[in-house]
């Protein structure tokens, strides 16, 4: 997958291109990541990329011309048919489904805004989708772009070392993940649940499924409501609820 990020601060990409899952995906050639700075396409000699909003109001807006040229450059660099996404507090909410959808793309351009945002005409002319990472306002789209790239890259086949890692994670099939434990066996006076030490794989599977169902029911009832549940899952959830009384 080829990803280009249009940003006034492309250096922020270093923090995912050098480390962890994303760094390894780039090293293995599964992902290529480029940063393109609209300042390189400023239209005046001062290199300005922002201006006052027509009609007045607080703050500055990103001018459309440098952004348009930077998006053109990104299109040329990554080729193909990229989806062009503007990170925006006003966009559709980013979630697990979106991450899966984007992971199927071969090319993606992410546009990070700054100041009070970008000129509406640029959005109409160049942007395929506006994407929000939550109902709050960030100072810039870079942190949102990093979050989106990280979540998408781990869904690309071959990126996660253990093929089951992406399948057993939270939000897959509308479930939060079960609680996990590692050594030591006793920590702060609390022991690891004995079932996990039993070596009985079927019992461990049922315990984990029960915990995942119970935890999701408690923390995210909206997910449980839309989940198609099997008879076994209904029984396990009932057991969990009864045990928590
Ligand atoms: C200060 S914000 C602009 C907010 C804008 N004036 C508004 O009220 O919607 C600057 C930039 O941060 C990014 N941004 C802010 N909140 C975001 C969010 N929740 N998700 C994704 N990007 C966001 C966008 O790229 C935006 O152009």
Features:
binds S-adenosylmethionine; 245 residues; two-stranded antiparallel sheet; 9 strands; alpha/beta; Trp Operon Repressor, Chain A; Alpha/beta knot; five-stranded parallel beta sheet
Task: Describe the protein in words.
The chain has 245 residues and is α/β, with parallel strands linked by helices. The chain folds into two domains: 152 residues, SPOUT methyltransferase, trefoil knot domain (Alpha/beta knot), CATH 3.40.1280; 73 residues, tRNA(m1g37)methyltransferase, domain 2 (Trp Operon Repressor, Chain A). The protein is 38% helix and 16% strand. The strands form three sheets. A five-stranded parallel sheet has the order 2-1-6-5-7. β8 and β9 form a beta hairpin. α3 packs parallel to α5 and α7 packs across α9. The radius of gyration is 23 Å and the shape is elongated. The N and C termini lie far apart (48 Å). The model has no long low-confidence stretch (mean pLDDT 96). The structure holds S-adenosylmethionine. S-adenosylmethionine binds next to β5.
């Amino acid at each position: 997958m080829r990803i280009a990020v249009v940003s006034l601060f492309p250096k922020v990409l270093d923090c995912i291109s050098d480390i962890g899952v994303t760094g390894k995906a780039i090293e293995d050639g599964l992902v290529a990541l480029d940063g393109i700075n609209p300042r390189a396409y400023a239209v005046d000699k001062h290199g300005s990329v922002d201006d006052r909003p027509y009609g007045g109001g607080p703050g500055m807006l990103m001018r459309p011309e440098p952004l348009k040229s930077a998006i053109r450059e990104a299109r040329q660099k990554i080729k193909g048919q990229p989806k062009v996404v503007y990170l925006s507090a006003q966009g559709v909410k980013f979630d697990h489904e979106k991450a899966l959808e984007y992971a199927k793309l071969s090319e993606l351009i992410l546009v990070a805004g700054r100041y009070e945002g970008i000129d509406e005409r640029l959005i109409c002319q160049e942007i395929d989708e506006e994407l929000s990472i939550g109902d709050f306002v960030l100072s810039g789209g870079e942190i949102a772009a990093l979050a989106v790239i990280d979540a998408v890259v781990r869904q690309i086949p071959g990126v996660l070392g253990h093929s089951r890692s992406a399948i057993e994670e939270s939000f897959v099939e509308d479930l939060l993940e079960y609680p996990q434990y590692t050594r030591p066996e006793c920590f702060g006076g609390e022991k690891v649940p004995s079932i996990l030490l039993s070596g009985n794989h079927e019992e461990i599977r049922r315990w984990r499924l029960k915990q995942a169902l119970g935890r999701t029911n408690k923390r995210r009832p909206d997910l449980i409501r839309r989940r198609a549940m099997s008879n076994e899952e209904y029984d396990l959830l009932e057991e969990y609820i009864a045990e928590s009384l």
